[in-house]
């Protein structure tokens, strides 16, 4: 590992996200927050207008566009980096790309709409294909797998192939194992510990576990989402060590610093034999 993974900063323009719902619900507040994360070192800003936390209720397409497109447009006017739209709806993606987004982060792996893959190809944006068992309202109702790592890998590779068959370029595809989306604590731990299996597919891996309930399940003192910085950093560093090329986080400044230090240590370890 000679280069640190990219850091994707989370910008939730929602009233009900699990960690920061309501804090950035206005266009002005969300724009300011996004630009603040960019200033802290975010390589990608992921802007979402519909919560996908367990039990979340769906949001209408028009409302989701109204929440996200103005933020994307304002951020794009002041920042030249990569902007992602976190949505499952092709109509929202079209509006987001028109406003300046260049990446589609989809929790359904382009499966929500029958023409999702074709629209991704038409728009030419990067796509993040995430694994989710079920749908947000029911995904944590007793999820079961035989071999969770193999099943998640095979599903994502199949979705990547479907995207390529529709015309999405292979180099624009990212895979996300979907930590916390239809998984128990043990499933999440297994996917993290064996993230290299997903990385070995050849597609870059995005890992997203920031402030999630997995951390509370390990440390019962981390009751509130804001109490989970230490666990979030530990998971981000472990994911980087196992081959993740990007981590999606709330705490950008701290994550960038942690990854820089980890990368410097690894570079020193690799270079040391040349000095002896």
Give a structural overview:
- An 8-stranded parallel β-sheet has the order 6-5-4-3-2-1-8-7.
- The chain contains 10 helices and 8 strands.
- Helix 2 packs parallel to helix 3.
- The model has no long low-confidence stretch (mean pLDDT 92).
- It has a single domain (6-275), classed as Dihydropteroate synthase-like (TIM Barrel).
- 45% of the residues lie in helices and 13% in strands.
- The chain has helices at 27-39, 61-78, 90-99, 116-123, 148-165, 185-193, 195-199, 213-218, 229-241, 252-275, and strands at 6-12, 44-48, 82-86, 103-106, 126-130, 173-176, 206-207, 246-249.
- The protein has 276 residues and is α/β, with parallel strands linked by helices.
Q: Which structural class fits the helix and strand makeup? A: alpha/beta
List the total number of helices. 10
CATH class equals: Alpha Beta
Query: How far is it from the N-terminal to the C-terminal residue, by CA?
Result: 21 Å
Query: What proportion strand?
Result: 5-15%
Helix content percent band: 40-55%
Name of the CATH architecture: Alpha-Beta Barrel
Write the layout of secondary structure elements.
Blueprint: E1 6-12, H1 27-39, E2 44-48, H2 61-78, E3 82-86, H3 90-99, E4 103-106, H4 116-123, E5 126-130, H5 148-165, E6 173-176, H6 185-193, H7 195-199, E7 206-207, H8 213-218, H9 229-241, E8 246-249, H10 252-275
Parallel strand pairs: 1-2, 1-8, 2-3, 3-4, 4-5, 5-6, 7-8
Helix pairs in contact: 1-2, 2-3, 9-10
């Amino acid at each position: 590992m000679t280069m640190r993974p990219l850091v994707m900063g989370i910008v939730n323009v929602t009233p009900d996200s699990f960690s920061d719902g309501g804090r950035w619900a206005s266009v002005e507040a969300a724009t300011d927050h996004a630009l603040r994360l960019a200033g802290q070192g975010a390589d990608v800003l992921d802007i979402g207008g519909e919560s996908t936390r367990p039990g979340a209720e769906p949001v209408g397409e028009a409302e989701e566009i109204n929440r996200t497109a103005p933020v994307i447009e304002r951020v794009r006017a002041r920042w030249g980096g990569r902007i992602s739209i976190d949505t499952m709806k092709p109509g929202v993606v079209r509006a987001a790309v028109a406003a300046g987004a260049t990446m589609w982060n989809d929790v359904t792996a382009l499966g929500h709409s029958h023409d999702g893959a074709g629209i991704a190809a038409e728009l030419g944006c990067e796509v993040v294909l995430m694994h989710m068992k079920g749908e947000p309202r029911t995904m944590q109702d007793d999820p079961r797998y035989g071999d969770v790592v193999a099943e998640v890998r095979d599903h994502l590779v199949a979705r990547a192939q479907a995207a390529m068959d529709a015309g999405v370029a292979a180099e624009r595809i990212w895979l996300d194992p979907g930590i916390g989306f239809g998984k128990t604590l043990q499933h999440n731990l297994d996917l993290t510990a064996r993230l290299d299996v997903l990385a070995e597919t050849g597609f870059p891996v995005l890992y997203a576990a920031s402030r999630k309930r997995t951390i509370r399940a390990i440390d019962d003192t981390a009751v509130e989402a804001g109490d989970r910085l230490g666990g979030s950093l530990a998971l981000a560093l472990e994911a980087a060590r196992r081959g993740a090329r990007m981590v999606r986080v709330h705490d950008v400044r701290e994550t960038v610093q942690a990854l820089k230090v980890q990368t410097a240590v690894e570079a020193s370890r690799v270079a040391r034999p040349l000095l002896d």
